[in-house]
Design brief:
Elements: H1 46-49, H2 68-71, H3 109-122, H4 222-227, H5 246-255, H6 259-269, H7 275-288, H8 294-297, H9 300-312, H10 318-331, H11 337-349, H12 356-368, H13 375-387, H14 394-407, H15 413-424, H16 432-444, H17 451-464, H18 470-483, H19 489-501, H20 508-520, H21 527-539, H22 546-559, H23 565-577, H24 584-596, H25 603-616, H26 622-634, H27 643-654, H28 660-672, H29 679-691, H30 698-710, H31 717-729, H32 736-749, H33 755-767, H34 774-786, H35 793-805, H36 812-824, H37 831-843, H38 850-862, H39 868-884, H40 891-907, H41 918-933, H42 939-950, E1 956-960, E2 967-972, E3 977-982, H43 996-1007, E4 1011-1016, H44 1017-1020, H45 1027-1038
Parallel strand pairs: 3-4
Antiparallel strand pairs: 1-2, 2-3
Helix pairs in contact: 5-7, 6-7, 6-9, 7-9, 7-10, 10-12, 11-13, 12-14, 14-16, 16-18, 18-20, 20-22, 22-24, 24-26, 26-28, 27-29, 28-30, 29-31, 30-32, 31-33, 32-34, 33-35, 34-36, 35-37, 36-38, 38-39, 38-40, 40-41, 42-45
């Protein structure tokens, strides 16, 4: 028969370790006779190996996956009858076996299988060592190399990333029962103390497909096996063979020196295994397994044990169930969901028989396997644990708590409280790992133990500190930080010292958690430890997850420890490489940390971070949103269009969820970025702050109001007045910066909050002058001046003395604002301040902007402190800036220059003593005259004029003087008298003192020969509604200065 066109019998490749397949590739509908079991072949039947044919589960096919029963079918180890001849005998036997009677040359495939089985065991050829091959060799079963994993087994998943600041510690393998089970051999099972801390949990191994094997004693399998076409279950009759009694098997298992001896026992005596043997074998494998159990988990012996577990699960006692699951957990092997469900069901049915150690092992195993039991089992477990809690040993307690936390299942406060009490009585017996796991679990479950327990834990940690490994250190201190419980300087220093000794053993998660905890507890562990940790950070940077690198950077920033540009640059590079894995919190806190450390990452990283933020800001929470915006603003990075709009919209929608700090931060960020968030958010913030004002600290209030001022958007009189009342009533809670920001806001928005709050603020400033920095002091003085509220001579004099001492720290803006305030109040500072200001200004003229130069010239002129030399240098600097701006000078600045020029003329006898650049002076005069011609007559002005006319005094209203430089309110030309009707803007609000600009105007007009008289608004309103009184007021004012006959009533 020509088979050249026949397909290869093994689509996935020839299995290694087997002879070439001796038959043509069978068609899909071919079947062995019922009396023959293909599992007896020394090589896999191609139909069980190739996809799409009977016996192999193709995951793409519509047939359901095979169950363990489908593979738990075997022929009898000893056949009492002769094998039947196949229905279609194969006449094309291999020609490599010439003897006609040789088993390999026979057409009966059963005989060929027997030959290969014999050769496999006997180690010889043609029976040279093992004797003549029998017609049927008992039950040897080869594994199936290359077999694709069967569906139904869950592939391993990477452990989920740990949440916020903590990782998932893996406790030592739980103890197994040491008591003698009546079904077990007399061998004692010792506790397992596997320590997986340093390397984390072992990955779940991927189980291979369990092949069919010859086993006896599986009840109820015949039906499913027959349905699968695999034969029937053959039970052994007449008792076990000599030397294979379950008790003897158990003894062999417990005395085996390594896992491969156990595997051999399983392969040789698996048919005689009972539930005790199965549990013992798995337990001993777990205890004796090598560090990497992959080869063990792929062995035929382990696969057979899996089938036995399913077959005999209902015969397992509580200890067996616990030990089996414990073994799976310790080996890092994740069974199929089907098998886990079977064991879970048996555990539920038999839970009352579980002792404390079994209970702890059970739930530990489920957690280790990342398998969440159903609600029924968890509820029953919690009840059973509560009933037996007094019998729990320390390791039972810690393992149970660790499992609850790892599974994310809280058993409730009552049980956790009871566990805490039980643990409290045994704290002195807790090992480092047990105390660490207990603390970690409580913290992860959100349960805070009482101080008595926490202090007891601190004491035990101090006793055992020399035994603490990196994960013990990291997770214990992390738990204290999560509790918000400061364990004391002694323990923290001891932790830091122990960490120093074991730093090279710290993995990335240990580093992250340790730093986060120290920062959260506001405990600086010392520069030496931080420097060594940052060195380890750089060496292990690629191991850090987004959460890990975020925690490290946040800790450095919170502790105020700058790790250096090199470390931050490396961290930024790593952040950029894994940026796509960052969630909103990772991104927000990482950016926050860079900003807090005053280190700006590369622009491409910030751009990519902004793009990532835009994509998720619409679902961001308040804290992440405010931190992200705050970071961008602090770093001076303007994100791309769209981010700020999305942020403003999201903030407006979720504002009730924002903390006062978050509101203050987001408003500050918008202000710094000079981006108005829109009326929707501004109105919402105004209302929310007013509603929750008592929840806001002085700093939150001050920053929020400052942001409104910076954005030139008033939050409304209601909030502004409420904030002023808050300031007045709680001034002791405010610091200089808070007071400064609030006063600055009122001045910027032009809101006068009343004399009382401002007087309180002035008194505070007077007594805290030394705490004000130059910028704050200048802003406070400017605010009082802008609000026209005289703060008192004591504050002005004290501020002058303070300014003299630190004038070299003043910025150009601070210098000019300070001098504007003195000029506004017409309060001459001491000569020492004027000299210091002039000298410092001349030394730093290159840093002055045009507005600052104009303000300083104007202020010095009003204070009669502008010397020709000062004028010349300041005006030259003004001209240079004007040239740089292409002559685009603010008219207000030019008017200030011209007024200063007019004042300087009064002091200088000859015009040539100071420079008057034609271009600047021409433009300045034009700006001045333009303002003179645009004068508007006020209502108060009209009233005074009308009453003056009624008493017979002839006058002109808003008459421009002959030189064209002034517009007089009321000019009585024949008597050379000017009457100024001075409204509120000419006086301080609280003391009614004329302001510096008003006095300057009067001085300039008087210098031109005019008699200056004033009708202040506060005097005129006294006669409001009483015309006779107003007439008499004007008679009294004018009589000494005019020759005109004034009419009497």
């Amino acid at each position: 028969m020509d088979h050249s066109a026949a397909p290869a019998p093994y689509p996935y490749g020839q299995p290694t370790g087997y002879p070439p397949y001796p038959y043509p590739y069978p068609p899909a509908n071919a079947a062995w006779p019922l009396s023959f079991d293909p599992a007896m072949l020394p090589y896999p039947d191609p139909r069980m190996y190739a996809g799409g044919v009977p016996g192999y589960y193709d995951p793409m096919a519509v047939r359901p996956p095979p169950t363990a029963a489908d593979f738990y079918v075997a022929a009898a180890p000893h056949r009492a009858h002769a094998p039947a001849t196949p229905a279609s005998p194969n006449t094309d036997s291999p020609s490599t076996y010439p003897q006609a009677g040789h088993p390999a040359a026979r057409t009966d495939p059963y005989a060929q299988a027997a030959y290969y089985q014999h050769m496999k065991h006997a180690g010889g050829k043609d029976g040279a060592v093992g004797g003549p091959p029998p017609a049927a060799y008992p039950g040897y079963h080869p594994s199936y190399p290359g077999m694709p994993p069967a569906s139904g087994y869950m592939r391993p998943q990477e452990p989920e990333p740990y949440k916020f600041q903590a990782g998932m510690p893996v406790p030592a393998g739980p103890q197994t029962d040491t008591g003698k089970d009546d079904d077990m051999s007399g061998t004692t099972m010792r506790p397992q103390h596997r320590n997986n801390d340093s390397n984390g949990p072992r990955r779940m191994a991927l189980p291979g497909r369990a092949p069919a094997t010859a086993l006896s004693g599986r009840p109820g399998a015949a039906g499913s096996a027959a349905a699968a076409g695999g034969g029937q279950i053959i039970r052994r009759k007449g008792g076990p063979m000599r030397g294979t009694h379950p008790a003897e098997i158990n003894k062999q298992i417990t005395t085996a020196k390594d896992v491969w001896l156990i595997v051999d026992i399983v392969l040789q005596h698996g048919a005689e295994f009972d539930a005790v043997n199965v549990a013992t074998a798995l337990h001993r494998m777990a205890k004796a397994c090598p560090e990497d159990p992959t080869e063990l988990l792929r062995s035929s012996g382990f696969e057979q044990l899996l089938l036995m577990v399913e077959a005999q699960a209902d015969q397992c006692k509580p200890q067996h169930i616990a030990n089996i699951l414990w073994a799976f957990g310790t080996l890092g092997y994740k069974p199929s969901q089907h098998l886990l469900d079977i064991l879970s069901k048996q555990a539920t049915l038999k839970l009352s028989g579980f002792n404390p150690q079994n209970l702890a092992n059970l739930i530990w195993a489920f957690a280790r396997l990342e398998h969440a039991p159903n609600t029924e089992l968890m509820a029953a477990f919690s009840r059973e644990a509560n009933n037996k809690l007094r019998e729990f040993a320390p390791q039972n307690i810690s393992n149970m708590l660790w499992a609850y936390a790892t599974l994310g299942h809280s058993p409730g406060v009552p049980l956790l409280s009871a566990v805490m009490s039980a643990a409290m009585t045994q704290l002195k017996d807790f090992t480092p790992q047990a105390i660490k796991d207990t603390l970690w679990a409580f913290a992860t479950l959100g349960f805070t133990p009482n101080n008595h327990f926490l202090q007891g834990s601190v004491d035990q940690c101090l006793v055992l500190i020399a035994q603490f490994n990196p994960q013990n250190i990291a997770n214990a201190i992390w738990a204290f930080a999560k509790f918000g419980y400061h364990p004391g300087r002694d323990l923290l220093q001891a932790m830091a010292s122990q960490a120093m000794q074991r730093l090279q053993q710290f993995n990335s998660q240990n580093i992250s958690n340790t730093l986060w905890a120290f920062a959260s507890l506001n405990h600086h562990p010392g520069p030496m430890l931080l420097k060594v940790l940052q060195r380890e950070l750089v060496h292990k940077l690629r191991q850090f997850t987004p959460q890990g690198i975020e925690n490290v950077l946040w800790a450095f920033a919170t502790l105020g420890h700058h790790p250096g540009d090199e470390v931050l640059a490396a961290a930024a590079s790593h952040v950029h490489s894994i940026l796509h894995q960052f969630n909103q919190q990772n991104l927000a806190l990482t950016l926050w940390a860079f900003a807090k450390l005053a280190w700006c990452p590369p622009t491409d990283l910030l751009s990519d971070a902004a793009s990532l933020a835009v994509a998720s800001l619409h679902t961001s929470n308040s804290q992440n949103l405010s931190n992200t915006l705050w970071a961008f603003a602090t770093l001076g990075f303007m994100p791309q269009a769209g981010l700020l709009e999305v942020a403003a919209s999201r903030a407006a929608q979720t504002l009730p969820d924002f903390t006062p700090q978050a509101i203050a931060n987001i408003m500050w960020a918008f202000a710094i970025l000079a981006h108005s968030p829109g009326t929707q958010l501004l109105d919402a913030v105004s209302k929310d702050v007013y509603r929750r004002l008592d929840d806001f600290s002085p700093q939150h209030i001050a920053v929020t109001l400052w942001a409104f001022g910076k954005l030139e958007a008033s939050p409304g009189a209601v909030l502004l007045q409420a904030a002023a009342d808050h300031l007045e009533q709680r001034i002791g809670q405010y610091n200089p910066q808070n007071v400064c920001n609030i006063l600055w806001t009122y001045a910027t928005l032009g809101y006068y909050p009343g004399g009382s709050p401002l007087d309180v603020a002035a008194d505070y400033a007077l007594h805290a002058l030394e705490e004000f920095n130059p910028q704050s002091l200048s802003n406070v003085l400017w605010a009082f001046a802008s609000l026209k509220h005289h703060p008192g001579n004591a504050l002005l004099d004290g501020s002058a003395a303070h300014a003299v001492r630190c004038v070299d720290q003043f910025t150009p803006q601070a210098l000019t604002l300070t001098m504007i305030a003195y000029a506004t109040f017409a309060h001459s500072p001491p000569e020492s301040l004027l000299t210091a200001v002039s000298e410092h200004a001349l030394l730093s003229l290159n840093k002055f902007e045009q507005q600052a130069i104009a303000n300083l010239i104007w202020a010095l002129a009003l204070l009669h402190a502008l010397t020709p030399n000062m004028w010349n240098q300041l005006l030259e600097a003004f001209s240079n800036v004007d040239d740089q701006q292409g002559g685009q000078t603010n008219p207000e600045h030019l008017r200030q220059i011209y007024q200063a020029h007019l004042m300087l003329q009064l002091r200088v006898q000859e015009a040539g003593e100071y420079q008057q650049p034609e271009a600047i002076m021409t433009a300045a005069r034009a700006a001045w005259e333009s303002d003179v011609e645009s004068t508007i007559v006020s209502k108060l002005h009209s009233e005074v004029s009308q009453v003056m006319g009624s008493i017979g005094v002839s006058h002109n209203i808003e008459r421009i003087t002959d030189d064209g430089l002034f517009s007089a309110d009321i000019l009585i030309e024949d008597d050379k008298v000017i009457v100024e009707v001075d409204g509120p803007h000419h006086f301080t609000v609280n003391t009614h003192q004329p302001l510096g600009a008003t006095l300057c105007r009067r001085e300039l007009l008087a210098a031109r020969g005019w008699t200056m008289l004033s009708v202040p608004y506060f005097d005129w309103v006294k006669g409001q509604g009483n015309v006779a009184a107003q007439k008499q007021y004007l008679r009294d004012l004018l009589s000494p200065h005019v020759k005109t006959v004034i009419m009497e009533d």
